[in-house]
Fold:
Amino acid sequence: MIVMFAVFLLSLLVITALAIVQTRNLFVAVMLTSIFSLLMAANFFILDAADVALTEAAVGAGVTTVIFLAALALTGERERPRRAGIIGPLVVVVSTTLVLLYATFDKPRLGDPLAPVHTHVAPWYLEKTPELIEIPNVVTAILGSFRAYDTLGEVFVVFAACIGVLFVLGAGSKAPAAIDGSERDSLGLRHHLIPQVVGRLLIPFIVLFGLYVQFHGEYGPGGGFQAGAIIATGVILYALIEGEKAALRAIPRGALLGLVAGGAMLYGLVGLAGILMGGNFLDYSVLMEDPVKGQQYGIILIEAGVGMAVCGSLLTIFHAFAAREGS
Amino acid sequence: MELLGYYNYWVFAIVLMVGFYAVIAKANLIKKLIGLSIFQSAVFLMYITMDKVEGGTAPIIQAGVTDQIYSNPLPQVLILTAIVVGVSTTALGLAIVVRIHETYGTIEEDEIMDMD
Amino acid sequence: MSDYWALALDVLSVVLLTSGGAFVLIGGIGALRLPNLYTRMHAASLTDSMATLLIFAGIMLQAGLSLATIKLCAIMLFLLLTGPTASYALANAALLSGLEPETIGEEDDAE
Structure:
């Protein structure tokens, strides 16, 4: 039964991908990309990856769509056909597809418990997590403790993307030659009553849910990345309803940059604290007397750092796009 | 029924190549970025396909249940990182596209090559 | 006695789920076959409201009285709030961008 469902969802993925490439209207393509991300999240959930499904839904179907739409508002909406021919790329793509399809027969079948990927480090992680860290969510344990160095690199990548967007797009709007400054403020959806009412109802719950996901990352699917994306989505909703200036008054740019830098720094400081207390870099066992408690507190702290960095970075990127005056 | 074990990989191959086609054959820069994001999502699908164990469940250890098979948590960790890195690069790419549009007035690649 | 009760709950939840599925199907067919945007939106909003209520009620009966039911109730409330808002936003955007709803007959012709 679940097999039919999975096959159906996978086929929908292929159809959506073909539709995205084929359509000429970029707005339609962006909306279809959002649907594609949602289908991908559903597929991940069927394949038992709950954390990844949550992240893909929050980040892919939520934030990426908003950023694409913001970029579309600043550029054009239609795509013009390409002048050179398409035979060359088509031949390359079809032949590579056939080679890949031939290569897939060498891979292990779906769900095979004897596949090589299940035999090396993974059983060790599943066995040692209740012993060394004692939190139920093994993915958070690996992300936060066993492979914390990779996550540190990832936080720095998010930080670098935020700084990069700020360099490219600028931190504020160029001074518009406006007669009356107040009219140039974007009013958002102020004239629309229904989204305002519903938005005002929902935003506190969205932020609350984001905080829930942040702190329950150790007991269920969740963690810093998902929480940062969800809280950023809540604030973006506020910015869309009330106007971007109101959102900047609520959380000013300085606070956002402080969140980004503070989150990355918190992560690095926790790592350094491990060194200062006598262990290795990012070794949490020495943070407290009981190594298990040390691991748990270390994971809470770095997840907080990750959540802050991701939230601040996504919001900064959104404001950088929104403040840009269209040409 | 045996072939259904490979269906995920076939979908991965097709979606990968569809995204790749969008990157190389379309002239519009935003379409290329969308194709790149589809390409990335297909790679994630392949990794997460490898993590499923038959009869397993999500790798959240339930207290008190001793002989539960869990799916492999390791590819999930890798893909979690990859998703966030993917959205970061997409955002940076879109910022560059906006600046290109402001400088050249168009985001079609062949027109930009003509102007340069 | 409690066996019959469980059986009755099962039957009721199957009925609810099936009718919810039927409403989704009707909404989908309507969204494809009706002539213009506003009529299609009528059909699509069926899925938002009626099908959500029925399907979630069916699932809640299956879950019994537990934490999962409260979470499902919260999700259902969220969907009921945001679905019609999305339909409103879509219709408003269509109206603002110039798409006029078609009317039958002329109101100012004396017939």
Notes: The domain at 3-115 of chain B is CATH 1.10.287.3510 (Helix Hairpins). Chain B has a mean pLDDT of 86. The helical segments of chain B are 7-25, 29-49, 74-104, 109-115.
